[in-house]
Amino acid sequence: MMGRPMTKEWIPNINLGQDYDEAYKDATIHFDKLGKLADFFGRDMPMHLHAEYCQIHLVLNGKTFFNIDQNNYQTEGSALFFTPAATPHAFWTEPDAPGFVITFHTSLLEGILDRLDAFNHPFYLPMVLERRKLPDDEWHSIEQLFSMLKHEWKQHAAWQSAAIETLLQLLVIHLVRVSGPPQARHQHHQADIISFRKFSRLVEAHFVEERRISFYCDKLTINESRLNYICKKVADTSPKKILNGRIILEAKRLLSHTSMNLTEISYTLGFIDPSYFSRFFYKNTECTPTDFRKQHRDMP
């Protein structure tokens, strides 16, 4: 299941508004039945991503195999899967498994987390919740919110967008509650959070061609000492580790999901010397690129 020939092409980016339903080409939220999407894309969906969109899959019964960024999950019965934006994922569901899929722009999630003062909640990571592991009332709330979203999506009533965004916010609140302990409010100064978020976006845009922390400081108009302080305060790590971590994540994706050789991967990630790339990878993972590929490229 989820088998796919390795190719040199990067993981395909699927935009539902262009590839599936042009009526929602510019929409920030798309809601649909799992079965309807499966009829179009297939139940055995190969590795893909949504560059600027997050997804929540609710599968109501049957077996599900979900691969999210080198993490394999196998569930049976009702389960929920959250996939962050730009995260490679593949999945398989049983032929008649019912469910729903919400696709929404990452800016909506950022706005919701801002309003909740929940910036530290790890919504940039995949999430898997299983019905059998949650109390009945908590799972019932999830199903109820999806049912309300389905109703609101179908009726095209006045203030529909506002209602759907409100229901999405309620769903995010519920997922924050059930997935971990609440974060302390006002833990960080708002200016620090804004600077950290700007730094994160700059890293996402420039991590291939820019390894100098001074480049990011210049863009943020702050000095390196200040950036170090902000990253330590907000994320308990250094700017260099954040930058290196993003490079390693991209390297793992290329090793897992393409057949590019090490030289091609090195050049793709901005390394002129493939041997230096191999040393960099090993230093940050305690595993060689070749060994990592052997362990992950043939994942089911």
Automatic annotation (TrEMBL):
One Pfam family here: AraC_binding
Stored SMART domains: HTH_ARAC
Gene Ontology MF, one: sequence-specific DNA binding
Domain (HTH araC/xylS-type): residue spans on this chain: 197-295
Xref: SUPFAM superfamilies: Homeodomain-like, Regulatory protein AraC
Domain of life: Bacteria
Keywords from the UniProt entry: DNA-binding, Transcription, Transcription regulation
Keyword hit for Transcription: yes
Protein's recorded name: 4-hydroxyphenylacetate catabolism regulatory protein HpaA
